[in-house]
Structures are given as structure tokens and as C-alpha cells.
Specification:
alpha/beta, Rossmann fold, Ribonucleotide Reductase Protein R1, domain 1, six-stranded mixed β-sheet, two-stranded antiparallel ribbon, 12 strands, about 20% strand, globular, binds guanosine-5'-triphosphate, binds magnesium ion, binds zinc ion
């Protein structure tokens, strides 16, 4: 992967070649964009061209949170809106828990402050297509002239769009990964962990806890999470999505989520735990073993090999 640390044997220094003998253990690993050993993600969104869609930004933030890496947020193309609009976005994103850096190629911006938080770090620059990721990296890395997109057409995808992941060295120390833009991040977390990816929920759970450990914060008895924050709707939408994904995995027999659908008081589909945690663990092991057996097509052989107590096979 881009970002891997490797041991090279028989280096041919003159020919600038060598054989990779081993890939050292990774301290982090991202699938999309594929980068190893990164410290943080710099999420770049344009305020205009393309117009900032708060729901899309929210999805990218959730995806970024699920990596466990530090998150920085930059809003680019600040020159395309007025100061009042910038201030409104700043306030809004601070409420979400992500104070943004405002950037612009064409007017004074917060480039210096951003630079300080990048130095010495390995940073993945990610975000939708055409927001100015490559333009920003050109600015951060002197003498670099990455080709930037000439946006055209309805999709805003043009020529010179970035098509691969590459690391660049900052003069202050640290590395930046330019990545191809993508527009719809997919999630792979469980409904119960989703809440941890919203700073608004994390903040509320610092001093209080919900009554149930697997609470989904949808109005369960003694839930400690309020509903009066802007992204609560986004939370519910993503929750329903990851819940459905898990049900699909369930039906394929991969693992039992322990959740079932019910109709909530406000007419929306809600998920609720369907089994006690202990029983749920037992169920899930059995279904996992079942799936493995189906895969190999020899349930009997497998049961013999595992024995009846082979729980963690
Ligand atoms: N007005 C304005 N335009 C900008 C700014 N930064 C970048 N652009 C323009 O936005 C377009 C896209 O820039 P890129 O840097 O190629 O965007 P990208 O995010 O790397 O795009 P992909 O590689 O497709 O993901 C280019 O035409 C840039 O000139 C800015 O601060 N203000
Ligand atoms: Mg690019
Ligand atoms: Zn709760």
C-alpha cells in the first residue's frame, strides 16, 4: 500500500532499485483511499463549485471518524462566497465539533494555521472530486505542479482529475497523500458503534450514560442523548443504512446483529436490540460456524473437527 514501510534487500543504489523483503506492521490502514500508516485525515470540501452539501459532508465525516485517525476539516474556494456566508459555515461546523480552516487560492486564508497542523504528520487529503485537493497540495509542496482538474459538465468531473494515491513530502517535515475524489462514502460499522462517530453524541455521553449499553439513541428509556442538534437527522439516516446493511449480512448468514426493525413513534423505522447480549453472542458464533460450514460444504466434518465446545473456531 501507499505509505507502507518496508525492508529492502539488495538495494541497487545506482539503478534506484531494490527488492522488498518485508512489509513492516502497519499502525493504520485505510481501504478508501488505500493508504497505510497515516496519522490524520484532512477532509477538503469546497463551499461552492461544487456547492457544499451538509449531508454529504456529514457522511464523509462519519467515514473519517470510523478510521480512528485525527480529523482536520478545510473549506476551500472561500473566494466564491461572502464573509457572512463563511462565518455562518464556521459557526455551524463548530457546533458539529469540526472547526474548519478556510482556504482560497485567491484571497487571504488560514493556510499558515493549516500548515502548522500538517507538519511532521502523515496526512491523507480526501474529499469529493473537484474541491481543490490537488490545488492545495501544489500550494503546500513548493516546486510541485500537480495537474488540477479543469471542471466541466454536469458531474463537475473534468480532465486532470487525480486517479491514483501518491505521497508528497512537506518541506516542514511530514507527508501528504493526494487521493482521487469520490462522492459517496460507504460505511461498514455496526449500528451500536455509529454514535461514537458523532462528536455531538460523544459530548453528551461524557457525563451521563444511557441505561442500555447497546442504546441506539432513538428515544429508548433513559437514553442520555438529546435530539435537538442539527445532525440528529443525519445520524438517523446513517443508522438506518448501516442497520439494513447488517440485516443483509444477516440474511447471508454472516453474523447476527441482534437488532430488529420496529415502527417508531414518529413513523420512522427504528432498530431495537432483539436479544440479550449473552444470548446474542452465542447466536452469532453459531451462525458464523454455520456460514463457514456452508462455505466448505461439509457441515458434518466441521462439527467433528470443532467438537461441541469449539466456541471460538
Ligand atoms: N475559485 C476557486 N477555485 C479553486 C480553488 N482551489 C481550486 N480551485 C479550482 O477547482 C478545480 C478543481 O481543483 P483540483 O485541485 O483539481 O480538485 P481535486 O479535489 O484535486 O479534484 P479530483 O482530483 O478530481 O478529486 C480547479 O479548476 C481549480 O483551479 C479556490 O480556492 N478558489
Ligand atoms: Mg486531484
Ligand atoms: Zn442512548
Amino acid at each position: 500500500m501507499v505509505g507502507d514501510r518496508v525492508r529492502v534487500e539488495e538495494a541497487d543504489w545506482a539503478g534506484n532499485r531494490g527488492a522488498i523483503a518485508a512489509v513492516l506492521p502497519r499502525c493504520s490502514e485505510l481501504d478508501r483511499p488505500p493508504v497505510a500508516n497515516a496519522d490524520q485525515i484532512l477532509l477538503v470540501f469546497a463551499i461552492e463549485e461544487p456547492t457544499l452539501d451538509p449531508h454529504q459532508l456529514s457522511r464523509f465525516l462519519v467515514k473519517a471518524e470510523s478510521t480512528g485517525l485525527r480529523i482536520l476539516l478545510a473549506l476551500s474556494k472561500g473566494d466564491l462566497v461572502n464573509e457572512a456566508q463563511q462565518l455562518a459555515w464556521r459557526r455551524r461546523l463548530e457546533d458539529w465539533g469540526y472547526p474548519p480552516y478556510f482556504l482560497s487560492l485567491y484571497q487571504a486564508d488560514e493556510f499558515e494555521a493549516l500548515l502548522r497542523s500538517l507538519s511532521g504528520q502523515i496526512t491523507i487529503v480526501a474529499g469529493p472530486s473537484g474541491v481543490g485537493k490537488s490545488s492545495l497540495i501544489n500550494r503546500l509542496v513548493p516546486d510541485l505542479t500537480l495537474r488540477v482538474a479543469t471542471v466541466s459538465g454536469k458531474l463537475g468531473r473534468g480532465r486532470h482529475t487525480t486517479r491514483h494515491v501518491e505521497l508528497f513530502e512537506l518541506p516542514q517535515g511530514g507527508l501528504l497523500a493526494d487521493t482521487p475524489g469520490f462522492n459517496q462514502p460507504a460505511f461498514d460499522c455496526s449500528p451500536e458503534t455509529l454514535g461514537q462517530y458523532f462528536p455531538e453524541i460523544r459530548r453528551q455521553l461524557v457525563h451521563q450514560r444511557c441505561q442500555f449499553g447497546n442504546c441506539l439513541h432513538q428515544g429508548e428509556p433513559n437514553c442520555a442523548v438529546q435530539k435537538d442538534w442539527e445532525r440528529y437527522g443525519d445520524y438517523r439516516v446513517v443508522l438506518a443504512e448501516v442497520g439494513l446493511q447488517q440485516q443483509v449480512r444477516d440474511r447471508q448468514g454472516v453474523v447476527d446483529t441482534g437488532l430488529k426493525e420496529k415502527n417508531g413513534s414518529d413513523g420512522q423505522v427504528e432498530l431495537e436490540p432483539k436479544l440479550a447480549p449473552k444470548r446474542f453472542r452465542r447466536e452469532s458464533r453459531r451462525s458464523r460456524r454455520q456460514e463457514f460450514a456452508n462455505l466448505t460444504g461439509s457441515l458434518q466434518d466441521l462439527d467433528l473437527a470443532l467438537g461441541s465446545g469449539g466456541e471460538d473456531a
